[in-house]
Design a protein that fits this description.
Strand order of the largest sheet: 1-2-3-4-5-6
Number of helices: 11
Oligomer: single chain
Structural class: alpha+beta
Distance between the termini: 32 Å
Largest sheet: 6 strands, antiparallel
Number of domains: 2
Order of helices and strands: HHHHHEEEEEEHHHHHH
Helix content: 55-70%
Shape: elongated
């Protein structure tokens, strides 16, 4: 009974500190994003026609998608704060005197980390994705800026896709309807064996279920005179329901929708590396939270009477920053396709866990 009470007490301390750190970071991000929207609103309309209440609501909708990435940082800061508080009150010393090891009083923190990581992936992420999608649509409606999901970094819009009849490459001068409607379109069509079939130029193209409907299209094929078609159908595995998610922002896609989108993207011959990386990141979140608790413990178990606490905490924060930089570099390598997505995401986490366990074992057993 006493053990259960102590575990409950420690778990409550960990949870309070982690949620407090998360809330503080959320408030700061909200203020920064709100100021940024105010700046954009002033540039868009000097008359102040965009109401502040609308900007406030838009910022609130964008906040969950921005803050879910801060969970690991909040877990590390909260765990450090909890262990330092217990050490300062000499509670850790009393626990050690009672025969408890570091692994025993870290157990509640690890359980809290797993629960928070699981909830963040399965519950918070879908909510954040839905809110982000609504915020993007509200942003487009407010500022008159359409999300062009087929745009290139410069020049014309482009899309390489696959369909029942073979592959094709589309270019367009402009895309509207969040990538579902194209204007001044050209398509290079290939058969299933990769052989060039024809070039199709049309004024407009609209995505339907399983095909692009191209209007007033000129078709130029090798050895054949150019012909004009009032309507030309170009096959694709994309659908109106999936193209926005498959080509849009990954933070607007729910964890539960990612497996289906990855399958659609691969079937349509669209690179799915960023979707796979996002899926692995969400899957690994509980383990990432565990890693942050262990990393925090390596710098927070020293007694206040021993001194050097500030140096240890700074070392721990720098170690966490170094890990996040390593994880980001690894993620970019995975997006580039140089390593498998699972390796790009999981290996840095396993590395920090291994290092943290090594340090803790040395501290505990000498």
């Amino acid at each position: 009974m006493k053990g259960a009470t102590l575990n409950w007490y420690l778990g409550q301390k960990f949870l309070t500190a982690i949620l407090g750190a998360f809330a503080l970071c959320s408030v700061l991000i909200f203020m920064i994003d709100f100021v940024e929207l105010l700046r954009q609103a002033s540039k868009y309309d000097d008359t102040g026609a965009v109401p502040a209440g609308l900007l406030f609501w838009m910022t609130l909708l964008r906040l969950p998608a921005y803050t879910e990435f801060l969970l690991a940082f909040a877990v590390q800061v909260g765990a450090i704060a909890t262990l330092l508080f217990l050490s300062r009150k000499s509670e850790l010393a009393v626990m050690r005197a009672g025969g408890m090891s570091a692994w025993q009083f870290l157990r509640p923190g690890l359980v809290i980390a797993v629960v928070l990581g699981t909830l963040a992936t399965t519950v918070y992420n879908p909510i954040a994705a839905a809110a982000r999608e609504q915020a993007e649509q509200l942003f487009a409606d407010t500022f008159g800026q359409e999300g062009n999901l087929l745009r290139a970094k410069s020049g014309e819009s482009w899309l390489r896709q696959n369909g029942i009849d073979g592959q094709s490459v589309l270019t367009a001068a402009h895309a509207t309807g969040r990538g579902l409607k194209l204007t001044v379109v050209s398509a290079l069509v290939y058969d299933p064996d990769g052989k060039f079939v024809a070039r199709v130029d049309s004024q407009t193209a609209e995505l339907k279920n399983g095909y692009w409907e191209m209007t007033d299209a000129w078709v130029v094929a090798p050895g054949i005179e150019p012909t004009k078609h009032k309507t030309y159908l170009l096959s694709t595995y994309l659908t109106p329901e999936r193209v926005q998610d498959a080509l849009g922002t990954v933070i607007s896609v729910s964890f539960w929708d990612l497996p289906g989108l990855i399958e659609v993207a691969e079937k349509a011959n669209i690179s799915s590396s960023r979707l796979q990386i996002q899926y692995e990141l969400l899957l690994s979140r509980p383990l990432l939270c565990i890693a942050m608790v262990l990393l925090a413990a390596t710098v927070s178990l020293r007694s206040f009477r021993s001194g050097g606490i500030q140096t240890m905490v700074i070392t721990g924060m720098l170690g966490g920053l170094g890990f996040f930089l390593l994880a980001e570099v690894s993620r970019q390598i995975g997006v580039a396709g140089l390593v498998p997505p699972w390796a790009a995401v999981w290996l840095p986490i396993l590395l920090v866990i291994l290092i943290s366990l090594t340090v803790l074992l040395h501290q505990e057993d000498g």
